[in-house]
Design goal:
about 240 residues, alpha/beta
Length: about 240
């Protein structure tokens, strides 16, 4: 008798052809997306951090749907050690912290001192104890090599997009088995899904997503929340 994954495949019913669902997206309207995106209200502290970030030129703080997903993922795995690449004004950090255990520590890296000052103000305004955050100023590609292998439960990559491939390799090294790698902006304003979009950034993100999807040491999904969250579990 077949066992394991082969047994599962032998019992799986035949799937209908893709064109059997010609209207499968007809009900997924812009209104439905907006409803799901705002289904979990953004906490006041995160909303204020978003406004502060956009005021000093951060055009893409994490969306509300993505933030709620980050909180859920951190809570689901009881993430006590989280590293974030791209502090911004603290929006994503606040979402992560709200899902982490009370003794969880967020390590966040950003090359902008202005961003990090705003994030520290956001953490303080939200009542986050100072020992729960470790804010590191510097370039991620220079800081990450100094971080310990297998020491983190969750790694969020939300920094410069052209640097994503390198950040991912570092992130996977830093993750424990069963940890989560999360990449924001992996739909890149709808351009990743458009085969006609072939600019360098879109191509980098598209190719990276496919490469992660095809790795046998990862279990990967691309979630259509906010600007796209790619989530991968390290086996």
């Amino acid at each position: 008798m077949p066992t394991g994954s082969m047994a599962l495949r032998s019992r799986r019913p035949a799937q209908p052809a893709r064109d059997a669902y010609p209207d499968r997206m007809s009900h997924f309207s812009a209104a439905s997306w907006s409803y799901s995106e705002d289904f979990v209200p953004e906490p006041e502290a995160a909303e204020e951090a978003r406004r502060r970030g956009m005021a000093f030129g951060d055009p893409m703080p994490v969306g509300t749907g993505a933030g709620a997903t980050l909180r859920m993922l951190a809570a689901a795995i009881g993430a006590r050690h989280v590293i974030e690449l791209g502090t911004g004004a603290g929006t994503s950090g606040l979402w992560l912290l709200s899902g982490m255990p009370a003794d969880g520590v967020l390590t966040t890296i950003d090359a902008s001192a202005e961003h990090q000052l705003a994030a520290k103000e956001a953490y303080a305004a939200a009542g986050v104890a100072h020992q729960r955050t470790r804010v590191i100023h510097g370039r991620a590609d220079e800081v990450l090599p100094r971080m310990s292998d297998g020491a983190y439960d969750l790694v969020l990559v939300d920094a410069d997009k052209d640097g994503y491939p390198g950040y991912v390799e570092h992130g996977l090294r830093l993750l424990r088995s069963g940890g989560l790698l999360v990449l924001d902006n992996m739909l890149w304003h709808g351009q990743v899904a458009d085969p006609a979009s072939r600019d360098a950034t879109t191509t980098t993100l598209r190719d990276l997503g496919k490469a992660l999807r095809d790795r046998e040491d990862l279990v990967t999904a691309l979630l259509p929340v906010s600007d796209g969250l790619l989530v991968a579990v390290k086996r």
